[in-house]
Design brief:
- It is built from 14 helices and ten strands.
- It has about 425 residues and is an alpha/beta fold.
- Helix 2 runs antiparallel to helix 4 and helix 3 runs antiparallel to helix 7.
């Protein structure tokens, strides 16, 4: 408690110094321009819930994020007393880069029944089942999974998962980045933009291929009306950790999030990658750059939350899980899932502290996920009692009919295959 009080005091002192000397506010009697304060949200307005999933250089890292999401989803179902509850029910925004973008698309794309195409558990089982189907299961001895390549094309698996669904067919705002070689800048695929104009609406299967593309094989795609063209390489290159981009999107999108003024009005779950150490040469440099950028984003976001981070921000990371020294050498899906969850969920992260550097977390990832699930359930219950909406989503004037109905059947078949083969 003393540490928390110290953090709060330090944060308040820094805020005063910042406002007085870095960004001075002028009074109405001053001859200098007056900067009106931002309107405060009503007391009954809730917090905007953001899910951010990192993108690594290998699809194997998606297994770790999927395992964390499956654990959180299980806790949400128990806490809410609803066995059919999904991750998408408890988040307002999903941002994902690389394989994280694929997971975000799987969990937040609308199915034929109006519900998410996948639960987190189904997404995890599908990744494991695909690994078995493609090369008999398991991981290569150097830590690279046999999943490599399954996320590099818009056809095949992606077509079976998403059909002809577009960004407009997502249940909540989704942000998936890539790097556009044509403009030499990052490009973020966004539901909010897609709803505004056909020129920014893309097929989800192509978006997923774009955010996973490697530098040597760019993915070229067009918007539905053909007006916007992108030559994409992976989101892991452009924006490995999309948490800051998601936060900025919410705080500046007043049409959909009218009462989100600062980080105290947000709840953020950020899922990191595995910290794979198996790469070499150029791939190793790219990995180091990506992980360094992700860590810097985590540190900056953690500092921004200050003393609010205990209840408003968590970061889940399992460093070194897919390294050559700790690669799980097993082909049974049930045992592999157990191994992933044990390593990931029992891990204690290194956390950034306000003005104190870093320290090992006092809580395991499992404890963090369970605790934050409780906060998400509290937020959901609070909203049901509020008369003021926390989120006002942009509506599609003429929604297209999603053709991703095959994904539900595909998921069920994959899950059954996984269970029976275990």
């Amino acid at each position: 408690m003393a540490f928390l009080d110290g953090d709060k005091l330090s944060y308040e002192i820094f805020s005063i110094l910042e406002s007085k000397f870095l960004f001075p506010l002028y009074t109405s009697g001053s001859t200098s321009p007056c900067t009106p304060p931002a309107p405060l949200p009503p007391a009954s307005a809730g917090r905007v819930r953001i899910l951010s999933i990192d993108g690594g250089g290998s699809p194997s890292e998606g297994l770790l994020a999927a395992a964390a999401l499956a654990r959180m989803e299980s806790a949400l179902r128990r806490g809410a007393g609803d066995p059919s509850a999904c991750v998408a029910d408890f988040f307002d925004v999903a941002a994902g880069s690389g394989v994280g973008g694929v997971l975000a698309a799987m969990l937040f794309t609308r199915g034929h029944d109006g519900r998410p195409l996948f639960s987190a558990d189904d997404a995890l089982r599908l990744l494991l089942a695909e690994s078995r189907r493609r090369r008999g299961g398991g991981f290569a001895s150097d830590g690279r999974t046999i999943l490599r390549g399954m996320f590099r094309r818009s056809g095949g698996l992606f077509r079976r998962l998403f059909g002809d669904s577009t960004l407009r067919d997502t249940l909540k705002p989704v942000l998936i980045p890539c790097f556009d070689l044509t403009t030499g800048a990052s490009f973020v695929f966004s539901r909010a933009d897609a709803v505004e104009a056909d020129a920014y609406d893309f097929l989800i299967r192509e978006v997923c291929a774009a955010t996973c593309a490697n530098a040597g094989a760019a993915v070229e795609l067009r918007s539905l009306d053909g007006r916007t063209r992108v030559a994409a390489v992976g989101g892991g290159v452009a924006l490995a950790n999309p948490a800051a981009a998601a936060i900025t999107h919410v705080l500046n999108n007043k049409q959909e999030f009218p009462f989100a003024v600062g980080v105290e009005d947000l709840m953020v779950v950020s899922l990191g990658t595995s910290g794979c150490k198996a790469a070499s040469g150029t791939a190793e440099l790219v990995r180091i750059a990506g992980e360094g950028a992700s860590d810097m984003v985590d540190q900056a976001v953690s500092m921004a939350f200050g003393h609010n981070r205990a209840n408003n921000y968590i970061r889940i990371q399992a460093n070194g899980f897919m390294s050559g020294n700790c690669t799980p050498k097993m082909t049974n899906c049930s045992k592999l899932m157990e191994g992933i969850e044990n390593v990931l969920l029992s891990h204690r992260n290194v956390e950034s502290l306000l003005f104190r550097g870093k320290k090992i977390s006092e809580q395991t990832n499992a404890e963090k996920l369970e605790r934050f699930a409780e906060e998400l359930i509290k937020e959901e219950k609070k909203r049901k009692k509020n008369s003021i909406p926390t989120v006002v989503l942009k509506q599609v004037m003429s929604p297209r009919t999603s053709s991703a109905t095959t994904a539900t059947t595909f998921t069920t078949m994959t899950t059954t295959s996984t269970v029976s083969s275990s």
